[in-house]
């Protein structure tokens, strides 16, 4: 397919720039830009995220942009597992790691997870974290 012959840098120059700003981390680079803006809405979820060190971003053209770009960047790295079309049935936050269970699979212990699920769907997966689950379930 045409997509596979394109370079990530050519298709997603903003992600390459974010990776540079984040010193090797696309997420940190995106967060740096987002959190240094003064026009984002300060609400209960944002305040809780800041106080607990959660990381949040919002993609202008939909959340599917992030996982697609991350797959392109990370798919060939040995220490990265990527699961697609795998319904998440549970997420447990166990500092400093996260345990993720997909349908029909065993729990996977991770340092980081990226979810493109809508907030209400993610709230079901994090039901063991009542404050987070309740907050996420209230987002449209």
Order of helix and strand elements from N to C terminus: HHHHHHEEEHH
Radius of gyration: 16 Å
Average pLDDT over all residues: 75
As an assembly, this protein is single chain
What is the SS-derived class? Answer: alpha+beta
Strand content: 5-15%
Main β-sheet: number of strands, strand sense, barrel status?
3 strands, antiparallel
* Total number of beta strands: 3
Search tags:
140 residues, alpha+beta, three-stranded antiparallel sheet, 3 strands, 44% helix, 11% strand, globular, disordered N terminus
Q: How would you explain this protein's 3D organization?
A:
There is one protein chain. It is built from 8 helices and 3 strands. The protein is α+β, with helices and mostly antiparallel strands. It has a 3-stranded antiparallel sheet, with no helix packed on it. Strand 1 (88-94) and strand 2 (97-102) form a beta hairpin. Helix 3 packs across helix 4. The N and C termini lie far apart (35 Å). The relative contact order is 0.10.
Task: Please provide a brief summary of the model.
This protein has 140 residues and is of the alpha+beta class.
Write the topology of this structure.
Elements lengths: L1 H4 L2 H4 L1 H9 L4 H10 L8 H9 L12 H10 L13 E7 L2 E6 L5 E3 L8 H7 L4 H8 L3
Antiparallel strand pairs: 1-2, 2-3
Helix pairs in contact: 3-4, 7-8
